[in-house]
UniProtKB/TrEMBL annotation:
It is an enzyme of class 3 (hydrolase). This is Dihydropyrimidinase. Belongs to the metallo-dependent hydrolases superfamily. Hydantoinase/dihydropyrimidinase family. The lineage of its organism: Bacteria, Bacillati, Actinomycetota, Actinomycetes, Kitasatosporales. It holds the Pfam family Amidohydro_1. Keywords: Hydrolase, Metal-binding. Gene3D superfamilies: Metal-dependent hydrolases, Urease, subunit C, domain 1. Residues 53-437 form the Amidohydrolase-related domain. Its cofactor is Zn(2+). The keyword Nucleotide-binding does not apply.
Length: 464
């Protein structure tokens, strides 16, 4: 039986427009937009969005649910993490399936399908982490693209875990140049960083703040430059993940000025947090250990400028939560043993709305960097990331005037601290539809594990 929902009276904001409009949803899709009150559509359900924004559901293109990492597992499962995503107005996540060294891409992807299937509250897709580049792996990349897994992350960091050397990176990039895949790069010089880690520990520098000191901005910039030039040699597009250093943004800006298909993502933690957090007293700084690391506050202005000028295209979370108790604590007395990663999948849309309130970005740019650009970048547009007839009815009714205080006491992520504890923000998610079904209804969770489905992606839609 078909169902019809009408959203009346809201301000519909997409990456390109802001219009007062009523929205008609038929089953899982958006059917029409019309001037307010101009249509007497019959409906099973009417949502009054007067005084509210009507925005596309967020697309978080960088999450790590249940990731085995640093001797433990990220604490959000696909069930808890996608439920938290829904609470925060995100209706699609793209998570990273992992190829372990000595195993195939297929084995890694199958394992991630098994973790996610039947458990997600909102839709999900996968990137593939390629840890072991060889002839078989390169062939498998082609097959994964046919299955809708069209992007591949490589690491210039973490020697002995996910690390690829320049030759392996070049080979994967060459394959991507031929098959339409997008290489995503963790750009930090991990070999040099490991030397600095060893030297710091030998000097007795074991506190969390030293994590930020050894993972130098120059080593992010150097790796970013190297990745860009390797991609240029291969003739492949490149997406650099979790950019935090001003010097790395400068490398991306230069490459884009040269006309290269080079893209950059940053994350809320680099825009709102800094090395001040890493230096919090006692072992508190461990809560903020992630890689690339938080930088001194001065870097933030360059990141905001990059987001305004499109030298950075996407803000994703790199959501990779580890509880303070029992997980971050693994690194007491040795910062290099603190599991790397921060929680944030629930906070991204609100923090970026706060950036609108603070004057860093416009409302349309908010929707561009959080919804439309990630959807385009990863082949999900216009199914996801916008409000237009034919698109999935992934829609958030957002109250731009509500005040909230972020806290572990009220968040829904399965982690015992908030990286933004006590932060006051203006704006809050009120109702969330995922393919037409309410998953959050007037601040009540109405979703269910298994509603979210695997969403195959086409190749990058963002190329020059
Ligand atoms: N970013 C981080 O610290 N943890 C997740 C793994 C990665 O993205 O490198
Ligand atoms: Zn990374
Ligand atoms: Zn990550």
């Amino acid at each position: 039986m078909s169902s019809r929902t009408v959203i009346r009276g809201g301000l519909v904001i997409t990456a390109s427009d802001e219009i007062h409009a009523d929205v008609l949803i038929e089953d899982a899709r958006i059917a029409a937009l019309a001037a307010p009150g101009s249509q007497s559509w019959s409906a099973d359900r009417t949502i009054d969005a007067t005084g509210r924004y009507v925005i596309p559901g967020g697309v978080d293109a960088h999450t790590h649910m249940e990731l085995p990492f640093g001797g433990t597992h990220a604490s959000d499962t696909f069930e808890t993490g996608t439920r938290a995503a829904a609470w925060g107005g995100t209706t699609t996540i793209v998570d990273f399936a992992v190829q372990s060294v000595g195993h195939t891409l297929r084995e890694g992807l199958d394992a991630w399908h098994a973790k996610a299937e039947g458990n997600c509250a909102v839709d999900y897709a996968f990137h593939m982490i390629v840890s072991d580049v060889n002839e078989e792996t390169l062939k498998e990349m082609d097959l994964l693209i046919e299955e809708g897994v069209t992007s591949f992350k490589q690491f210039m960091a973490y020697p002995g875990v996910f690390y690829s050397d320049d030759g392996q990176i070049l080979r994967a990039m060459q394959r991507a140049a031929g098959n339409g895949g997008l290489i995503m790069m963790h750009a930090e010089n991990g070999i040099a960083i490991d030397v600095l880690v060893e030297q710091a520990l030998a000097r007795g520098e074991t506190d969390p703040r030293h994590h930020g000191e050894v993972r130098k901005a120059l080593l992010e910039a150097e790796a970013t430059h190297r990745a860009i030039r390797l991609a240029q040699v291969a003739g492949a597009p490149l997406y650099v993940v979790h950019v935090s250093a001003a010097e790395a943004v400068a490398e991306l800006a230069r490459a884009r000025d040269e006309g290269l298909n080079v893209f950059g993502e940053t994350c809320p933690q680099y825009l709102f947090l800094s090395t001040d957090n890493l230096a919090e007293p006692g072992f508190e700084g461990a809560k903020y250990v992630c890689s690339t690391p938080l930088r001194p506050r001065e870097h933030q202005a360059r990141l905001w400028r990059g987001l305004r000028t499109n030298d950075l295209q996407v803000v994703s979370t790199d959501h990779c939560p580890f509880c303070f108790t029992g997980q971050k604590e693994l690194g007491r007395g040795d910062f290099s043993k603190i599991p790397n990663g921060l929680p944030g999948v629930e906070n991204r849309m609100d923090l970026l709305h706060q950036a609108v309130v603070d004057g860093h970005i416009s409302r349309r740019r908010w929707i561009e960097i959080a919804c439309a650009a990630p959807a385009r970048m990863f082949g999900l547009y216009p199914k996801k990331g916008t409000i237009t007839p034919g698109a999935d009815a992934d829609i958030v009714i957002y109250d731009p005037h509500a005040e909230q205080v972020m806290s572990a006491a009220t968040h829904h992520m399965n982690v015992d601290y908030s990286a933004y504890e006590g932060k006051r923000v203006t704006g809050r998610v009120e109702t969330v539809l995922s393919r037409g079904e309410p998953v959050i209804d007037q601040r009540e969770y109405t979703g269910r594990a298994g509603h979210g489905v695997f969403t195959p992606r086409s190749t990058c839609q963002y190329l020059n």
